[in-house]
Automatic annotation (TrEMBL):
Protein name: Uncharacterized membrane protein
High-level lineage: Bacteria, Bacillati, Bacillota, Bacilli, Lactobacillales
Sequence ranges assigned to domain Predicted membrane protein YciQ-like C-terminal in this UniProt record: 302-560
Transmembrane segments: 266-288, 450-471, 477-498
InterPro entries given in the database record: DUF2207, YciQ-like_C
Keywords assigned by UniProt, alphabetized: Membrane, Transmembrane, Transmembrane helix
DUF2207 domain: residues covered: 36-223
Keyword Oxidoreductase: no
Pfam families: DUF2207, DUF2207_C
Length: 640
């Protein structure tokens, strides 16, 4: 009764505290958020046939209460085990206490249905942690009459994360005869396995770039029984040849299945063989037909336009009329535009000198201070709000661009945040750009689809011809085939470049596009004109923003310095150094933004998705997608 009353009292106090604002930490703040980035696994084989596993799991943590790791014990016996955490400074492992208290810095184990579950209680925030699991699997090696075998899934199917894997299986000696030491890898097709005989020790090295989620990784190996003389797990049977033949057959079968799948994909595209030239001709017809229909009488535009063609932001202008993807210039132009509008204050500042790979040697960086928070009445567009969010986190009102770039390199969660905001910036501008050319957009998409279809058909003709006709039939008609396909490909390229350089526009869209080009031409040739006669100085401040997106800001700044005095430039929105030193806009702003945007973009493995299952014979090579039936498939890891 006392416990019930005490519990009710605590609940009431909690509700009151929550209502009065004494519980400021929200549920979202405590949400588990982490990435598993790397798994390193070392397996030491002993003379007794045991394997001592040391698995290091690297977590990039935003918020974490602890981790769970499961080891499949089917067909194996568990020996001693330990759990620890690596010291980030010394690299040494600090071992945790096994306890049922669930206190921070402890772990507990549970075995159910031959599945060992480690639960590690280790609350963490905004850090990288290496969790170390050491355990012995007894008699995992099987000694036959003529060979010893390891057959184990190093990773099970219970992990919902992609990560890199490096594994090393260390034999208790060196194998002298090459044919007595073989190993095969099963699982992700991009995995690689090697046999290493250096340092008077035989090793099996495994590496997988971007191991797929819920994908097992299995190693099967044979070596002389002399290396495990004290092994009690013995089978009175000669199995060496059978193991080699079975493993090679599995690899061959996996490769055959892969080729069959590729063939089925090609069969789906066989209809394109006869239609490739016709598709190209039809694409040409669509392009010229819609071009004439949309813009029968183009409006005249002078070589130079001296007024802003339309009241749109530089980024949306670029997405609408420049026929190129958005880049860091458009992001930088938006920053300068926000400074011109009074939301930001820009200044130059000496950069903290760093050494290392990411130091480009620049001595100056841009300091940005938030002058005022945007309100609903300000009517800033979404892409401008994304820029402000990119520059400042919730607790910031001042930042250096060099600090943003450094944080991107050092913190993966921050890099993901920045890349997400950059993507939103691009997507919004592209949507607005599509609305600006909304009349011609359906026709563009139609022509682009037919061009893509023609190109796809032309590219796939050669492998399809080899697949269906064979080399002999192709050789008989090689001159005709090469001539026809070469001409078809050339016409596709011509249409492709025509469509990029002169895409479909309606009359008004084409007029606006050419007006912006004439405006850009005026900015490029501004040194030939009297700036005072063209526009007032505040207007040139606005034009400079567009010059950044148009790639001619240095010429505008040079002309402003020649035609205006320092006192006049001091009255503009940006600090004076931005007007008399093109370096600040070109290098310190544009180049730094380009570098930080590129750094935030997620990296991909070069061989991700490639099939490399070519390890015939067991002497090293790629992973095979099948399995040799090794134990340990139910293991997995994750946070809570």
């Amino acid at each position: 009764m006392k416990k019930l009353s005490r519990g009710l009292f605590i609940i009431i106090l909690s509700i009151m505290a929550l209502g009065m604002g004494y519980l400021p930490v929200s549920a979202q703040d405590n949400q588990v958020n982490y990435d598993i980035t790397h798994v390193e696994l070392i397996g030491d084989i002993t003379a007794e046939g045991d394997v001592l596993f040391t698995e290091t799991q690297t977590y990039d943590i935003k918020q974490l209460n602890g981790v769970i790791y499961q080891v499949d014990l089917q067909e194996v016996n568990l020996g001693p085990y330990r759990v620890g955490v690596k010291d980030p400074e010394t690299g040494k492992t600090r071992y945790l206490e096994e306890s049922t208290s669930r206190q921070a810095g402890t772990f507990q184990t549970q075995v159910e249905d031959d599945l060992l579950k480690f639960t590690v209680f280790y609350p963490s925030q905004n850090e990288k942690v290496d969790f170390v699991f050491e355990y012995r699997l007894e008699n995992l090696i099987t000694n036959y009459q003529d060979t010893a075998e390891l057959n184990r899934k190093l990773l099970g199917t219970g992990t919902d994360e992609n990560f890199d894997v490096d594994a090393e299986i260390i034999l208790p000696g060196k194998v002298e005869q090459k044919n007595d030491f073989r190993a095969w890898l099963y699982g992700d097709p991009q995995g690689q396995i090697q046999l290493d005989q250096s340092q008077n020790q035989s090793r099996i090295l495994v590496s997988v770039l971007n191991q797929s989620a819920n994908q097992f990784l299995e190693v099967q190996a044979i070596f002389p029984t002399a290396l495990t003389p004290n092994n009690q797990n013995r089978v009175d049977q000669a199995k060496k040849e059978a193991i080699i033949n079975q493993a090679n057959a599995q690899v061959e079968q996996d490769r055959a299945d892969y080729q069959k799948r590729q063939g089925l994909e090609l069969l789906k595209l066989v209809a394109l063989l006869a239609f490739a030239p016709l598709l190209t001709l039809y694409s040409f017809y669509l392009y010229f037909h819609h071009k004439k229909r949309l813009n029968p009488n183009p409006k005249h535009v002078p070589d130079h336009v001296f007024n802003l063609p339309a009241e749109i932001s530089p980024a949306i202008m670029a997405a609408s009329y420049l026929n190129r993807p958005l880049n860091a210039d458009d992001f930088s132009a938006t920053i300068v535009d926000l400074a011109r509008k009074g939301y930001l204050d820009l200044g130059e500042e000496a950069k903290h000198q760093r050494t290392g790979f990411f130091n480009r040697g620049d001595s100056k960086t841009i300091r940005i201070r938030l002058l005022k928070e945007p309100s609903q009445q300000d009517q800033l567009q979404k892409h401008e709000l994304y820029v402000l969010e990119y520059l400042f986190t919730e607790d910031q009102d001042e930042v250096k661009l060099s600090e943003i770039e450094t944080a991107i390199h050092q913190h993966s969660q921050f890099a993901k945040r920045q890349n997400r905001l950059w993507t939103r910036f691009k997507n919004f501008c592209q949507v607005m750009g599509q609305q600006a050319v909304g009349e011609s957009l359906p026709y563009r998409r139609k022509v682009n689809s037919w061009i893509a279809l023609s190109l796809l058909a032309s590219i796939l003709v050669w492998p399809l011809l080899f697949f269906f006709l064979g080399f002999d039939q192709i050789e008989k008609h090689i001159v005709l085939i090469v001539l026809l396909l070469s001409l078809n490909f050339i016409f596709i390229l011509i249409l492709f470049f025509m469509n990029r350089k002169a895409p479909l526009y309606s009359q008004e869209e084409d007029y606006q596009r050419r007006m912006w080009r004439a405006f850009a031409k005026m900015l490029e040739d501004i040194g030939q004109f009297n700036m005072r006669e063209i526009a007032s100085l505040p207007l040139w401040d606005e034009y400079l923003v567009y010059a950044i997106s148009l790639g001619v800001a240095d010429k505008v700044i040079e002309a402003m310095n020649k035609q205006y005095g320092m006192d006049e430039l001091n009255e503009l929105a940006l600090p004076t150094p931005f007007y008399n030193n093109p370096y600040l806009l070109h290098r310190a702003l544009r180049t730094t933004m380009s570098s930080s945007i590129a750094a935030a973009h997620p990296k991909t493995a070069a061989n991700w998705g490639k099939y490399q299952g070519s390890n015939i014979g067991g002497f090293g090579g790629g992973a095979s997608s099948g399995s040799s039936g090794g134990s340990g498939g139910r293991g997995g890891m994750g946070g809570f």
